[in-house]
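We give the entry.
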Amino acid sequence: MTQFKAMKFRVRDEEHSKAIQTWLFEQGYRWPTTGQHLHNFDVRVIHTWEDGGITYSDDESFKRDVSEEEMTLDYTTEMKYIITNVKPMKKRNIVNVGGVDYYEDELAEALSKIKPVEGNNYGST
C-alpha cells in the first residue's frame, strides 16, 4: 500500500483482531510503540492513521477528528483477506480564512452560532 488511509474496523473477536492487525501490517501500518507486533486482542475498534499508525478504542461510537473510512475485514482459514469499504469516506472541503485552514462543515456550524452584526456599527461603543 503506497498511501495510508484513516480507517475504522469493528472487531468481532480475538481472531478477527489478529486478522485485521496482520492485514494492516502487510500494508505497512504499525503500532506506535510496538511496531508490527500482534496485541490488543480484546479491543472493540481498530483505527488507522494517514501516517501509517494504528490505534484502538473500546467504544464503538468513538469519533476522531479525522474522516475515516469504516471497513470490514473477513478472512478464510487460509488467512486470505477480503476487505470491504462499509461507509465511503466523505471528502471534506477545506476553506481558508485569514490564512488558517478550516473544514467547511465545521466553519459553517461555528458561524451558525454567531449572530451577524446589525447595521453599520463600526467604531461605536
Q: What stands out?
A: Strands lie at 7-10, 45-48, 54-57, 69-75, 81-87, 94-97, 100-103.
